[in-house]
Amino acid sequence: MKIAICCYPGFELEKIIKACEYNSNDYAVINLLSPNWLEEIRGYDAYLIRPPCQYEEHKMIFDERVYFLSQVLEKKIYPSFNELYVYENKRNMATWLEYLEVPYPKTSVFALKEDALKFVENCSYPIVSKANIGSAGSAVEIIKSKKSAKRLVHKIFGYISPELALGNIPWGKKNNIPFPRLSRAQRHYVLFQEFLDVKVEWRIIRVGNSFFGHQKLIGNNGFASGSDLVGWVEPPKVLLEMVRKMTDKMDSTSMAVDIFETNDNKYFVNELQSIFGSYKPSQMYINDIPGRYLYDDELNKYDFEEGEFCQNSCWNLRIEVLKKEML
After folding, report:
1. Which stretches of 68-112 are DSSP H helices?
2. 113-129 pLDDT, tens per residue?
3. Comparing C-alpha atoms, which of 214, 211, 168 is closest to residue 297?
4. Which of 32, 118, 186, 261 sits at a 20 to 30 Å CA gap from 301?
5. DSSP H helical segments within 13-111, as ranges?
6. What is the four-CA torsion angle of 258, 86, 180, 192, rounded to 10 degrees?
7. Rounded distance, CA 305 to CA 295, Å?
8. What is the spatial distance between Cα 187 and Cα 156, in angstroms, rounded to a whole number?
9. 223: pLDDT confidence band, cut at 50, 70 and 90?
């Protein structure tokens, strides 16, 4: 099997190459942002896709070209188009969560200023504002008052006209010096989410029939995303089942599902990410033992298998799943 690696520059390319070499696959690296991309993608059996998560315009170009590759040319890609289209696309994710009929923080997406203003006039505070794209909690803001919400709506849609909308501009830091990320301004839509009293956040990962789980602990900024604080504890089986049923309905075999556990012991799905950070060779440790749960379809049970299965940010495992799907 000859694989084309379509990886956004600087994002896990070395790890995907190592995974291909580990699985003894012929491969070539294709630049999906190249003006000659349509000619360059010809002649491969399968395509590994690693999209961007920084600039929304680049993510849209990736989505457009992956759509053409998978839906028009009918090429085998991994992860699948639906999985990739929900990645770093919170508007699309909100639609999926409603369709999947799982508990999730009530989410409203507004494309018209008058609808957004009507909502903030009558909603309960605090609420959470999110941009469509933005990893590690970089585009998440807790809005505590009607005045702040209205100010945000006017920035995003324009005070006078949408033609004059500066947008909501996030801030970053370089060498400890703050600077405005002008290229990531959020314009012409707003996404508001119900604020929940969160005790802990769980990350449940599925790759094929392998399941992993751990806690994402809340950091000083009040968010679990981007805190890099991990609780290596055994995940509840009810969450494994929730994720299996969700991903089965999505026809998904590469997905990390972030789930809030509230202080009244309820679970709410917060994020779906087909590409996810996994800096350690295992994404689950139970009593300090690395491993995974393997789901047995016939017996409908999860069997623990000791070992490290998440090398190269889970690309080794993704290629194993891809091979099985190609048989």
Report:
1. 81-86, 90-100
2. 999 999 999 999 999 99
3. 211
4. 261
5. 13-22, 37-40, 56-67, 81-86, 90-100
6. -70
7. 11
8. 5
9. low
